[in-house]
Design a protein that fits this description.
Number of domains of chain B: 3
Oligomer: heterodimer
CATH architecture of chain A: 2-Layer Sandwich
CATH class of the largest domain in chain B: Alpha Beta
CATH topology of chain A: Alpha-Beta Plaits
Helix content of chain B: 10-25%
Structural class of chain B: alpha/beta
Number of strands of chain A: 8
CATH superfamily of the largest domain in chain B: FAD/NAD(P)-binding domain
CATH topology of the largest domain in chain B: FAD/NAD(P)-binding domain
Radius of gyration of chain B: 24 Å
Number of domains of chain A: 1
Distance between the termini of chain B: 62 Å
Shape of chain B: globular
Distance between the termini of chain A: 43 Å
Largest sheet of chain A: 2 strands, antiparallel
Structural class of chain A: alpha+beta
Largest interface: A-B, 56 and 50 residues
CATH class of chain A: Alpha Beta
Strand content of chain B: 25-35%
Bound molecules: flavin-adenine dinucleotide
CATH architecture of the largest domain in chain B: 3-Layer(bba) Sandwich
Strand order of the largest sheet of chain B: 3-2-1-7-19
Radius of gyration of chain A: 16 Å
Number of helices of chain A: 5
Number of helices of chain B: 11
Order of helices and strands of chain A: EHEEHEEHEEHEH
Shape of chain A: globular
Strand order of the largest sheet of chain A: 1-8
Helix content of chain A: 25-40%
Chain lengths: 164, 422
């Protein structure tokens, strides 16, 4: 069975090691701005959320790409970019509900998770288990989707209750 | 046998979808143009000299037979006979069981005196770009400031032309941005040396055989090229003549299965009008991603496999000298919906504007950062309520300032190697 990155924001301490190892692995420098995973902070709530490409089955980024440059790579099932076709319009960045497509400010290109050829460094280095590389079971896929939706909901409740 | 009219993204996506579902069915794709499939969206980059011409093409001529798709290129379909189930190519005819109209759109050419002069262009095909490129290094006037006009102006400026951008209304990209966002983009263009002339109307193009200048309601400008980018028209003439219903917006009317008013004839892409996913209203949405999805839906239903089109999304994302200008859904200006409310915010270098009606997000614009917009698009399409949106913009999810993070100073490639061997 295919594997996927499963994130658990309740376990994320915000150490950002994932961002660093990601940029080192892909760009050879430790520069979180060039990472394909982003730990996002909901400022007023202090919640840390690792955001990374879910390699969605019905991927919005693939659907919107005006040059067919986002393609499904068959071996790992990742969504990758054909840079010969990419025009850098960033419509994919806009369409991703997870904000999981980044724009490399140095190379001026869109970047997103490629699962490090099957050995994702973020999961390997995450000490709390907030990022795991696990089987792409339906349960895990659901879990990932629910996490995203719960995040929206819990925040909405907090706001509604006037906690902010 | 399935016949597809049009070699754009809609036609090709329909063809590939059908082939994927049925390895045997005969597919013939007809196009007036002779190019293999290309993407018009990359034309501004080719025009700017950033892309090789080859990069415009998504397919080669050999890709069609390899997929089992027969092609008739360089031939214009002159009529459709729905009774006999035939398409007409001059004196010849071709029979079909199912027909897919993917005839796309063409640039609108307003009837302005001088519009037929040499040196007046519009940008739609690789050939158009080739011709514009032949006359580089001079003064160009781009008429119409939609995204294509703005991208064309930027491309020509990058090539060293003196560039004027003329817009009839008070702001540029008037259909997709409100005043503040539009003026931020205009300011960038001006700073790069493009003369942006708003609230100005082109009345005439001067010249004997070639363009020598233009006349607006305010001034005369000498120039060598005029690029008309005042919008696109759906190619619906064939459909109309065949008795297929064409809607009030000027697009072919289709069901949610992309079937036209005539059974067995489907349509997809820029030639149709469709429903807005966000508000259910009929719209023209001449955008790549809509054409592509419609092509998939037409392909399925043409084989009798039920699949419903969820609706079109208007998303524009455009790189303006490294600043991203993004808009989706509706804008506030001229909006006839009741209670249109606007939230605006500057956050660092980024500008955001949300358009809200009756407690729901109906549109959003941003200048600067594109990454936050996905969550908002999701909110719009899910028709979430106002509270959530307000909290999103006010307590915007922002990445921490990473540069000073302690761990960053110690991590090196060799440290990773070492850690991996633990
Ligand atoms: C410069 C430019 C930049 C753009 N940038 C973007 C962008 O960044 N993002 C985005 O989403 N969209 C963009 N678009 C829009 C996008 O390119 C279109 O939405 C898309 O190409 C529509 O595809 P289509 O298949 O419906 O039609 P088309 O590509 O117009 O194809 C129509 C086909 O029908 C054929 N045809 C028509 N009539 C006949 C006939 N009578 N007989 C035979 N063949 C016929 C034509 O030869 C052609 O092959 C851009 C467009 C332009 C021009």
């Amino acid at each position: 069975m295919r594997k996927m990155l499963v994130t658990d924001y309740e376990k994320c301490t915000g150490c950002r090691l994932c961002e660093l190892v990601c940029s080192v692995k892909h760009e050879g420098v430790s520069n979180p701005a060039r990472s394909r995973i982003n730990v996002t902070k909901w400022e007023t709530k202090g919640i840390m959320v690792p955001m990374v490409c879910s390699q969605c089955e019905d991927a919005p980024c693939m659907a919107v790409c005006p040059t067919n440059a986002r393609i499904r790579e068959s071996e790992l099932g990742t969504v990758t970019v054909n840079y010969d076709r990419c025009i850098g319009c960033k419509t994919c960045v806009v369409a991703c509900p997870f904000g999981a497509i980044n724009f490399d400010p140095i190379d001026h290109k869109v970047i997103s998770c490629d699962l490090c050829e099957g050995d994702p460094q973020c999961a390997r280095f995450c000490e709390t288990g907030a990022i795991r590389y696990a089987e792409a079971s339906d349960a895990n896929k659901m879990r990932q989707r629910e996490a995203a939706e719960k995040l929206y909901e819990s925040l909405q409740k907090l706001d509604g209750a006037g906690v902010s | 046998m399935v016949v597809i009219l049009g070699n754009g993204v809609a036609g090709n996506t329909a063809a590939s979808t059908i082939r994927h579902l049925d390895s045997r069915i005969e597919i013939t794709l007809i196009s007036a143009e002779t190019y293999p499939e290309y993407t018009a969206c990359a034309l501004p980059h080719y025009l700017a000299g950033e892309f090789e011409r080859q990069r415009l093409f998504l397919k080669s001529e050999e890709d069609y037979p390899a997929e089992g798709i027969k092609t008739i290129f360089g031939r214009t379909v002159s009529g459709i006979d729905p009774e006999k189930k035939q398409v007409l190519l001059g004196d010849e005819s071709l029979s079909y069981d199912k027909l897919i109209m993917a005839t796309g759109s063409r640039p609108l050419v307003p009837p302005i005196p001088g519009v037929d002069l040499e040196g007046v262009f519009s940008l739609k095909s690789p050939g158009d770009a080739d011709r514009i490129l032949e006359g580089l290094g001079q003064t160009a006037v781009v008429v119409g400031s939609g995204p294509i006009g703005v991208e064309t102006a930027i491309s020509l400026k990058k090539q060293g032309d003196q560039v004027y951008l003329i817009e009839l209304l008070e702001r540029i990209m008037p259909k997709i941005f409100d005043e503040e966002a539009a003026s931020l983009v205009a300011a960038i263009l001006e700073e790069k040396g493009i003369r942006v002339l708003t609230a100005e109307k082109l009345v005439q193009i001067n010249g004997q055989e070639r363009v020598e200048g233009i006349v607006t309601d305010k001034q005369q400008i000498e120039c060598d090229q005029v690029i008309m980018s005042v919008g696109v028209r759906s190619n619906v003439e064939l459909a109309r003549e065949a008795g297929i219903e064409v809607g009030s917006l000027g697009g072919i009317v289709v069901s949610r299965r992309m079937e036209t008013s005539l059974e067995g004839i489907f349509a997809c892409g820029d030639c149709v009008q469709s429903r807005d996913m966000a508000n259910g209203q009929e719209m023209l949405s001449p955008l790549w991603h809509n054409a592509k999805r419609q092509g998939i839906i037409a392909g399925y239903n043409c084989l009798g496999i039920d699949k419903i089109y969820p609706g079109s999304e208007s998303i524009t994302s455009l790189d303006v000298y490294g600043t991203q200008a993004v808009s989706f859904g509706s804008i506030a200006a001229g909006n006839e919906a009741e209670d249109v409310e606007v939230i605006e915010k500057y956050s660092g270098d980024n500008y955001y504007r949300l358009v809200i009606s009756k407690g729901h997000l109906i549109g959003a614009q941003s200048i600067g950062n594109a990454q936050d917009m996905g969550a908002l698009l999701y909110v719009l399409l899910k028709r979430e309520n106002l509270d959530k949106i307000k909290s999103m913009i006010e307590q915007r999810i922002t990445p921490l300032n990473l540069r000073h993070h302690r761990v960053g100073r110690y991590i090196t490639p060799s440290a990773i190697e070492a850690a991996g061997e633990r």
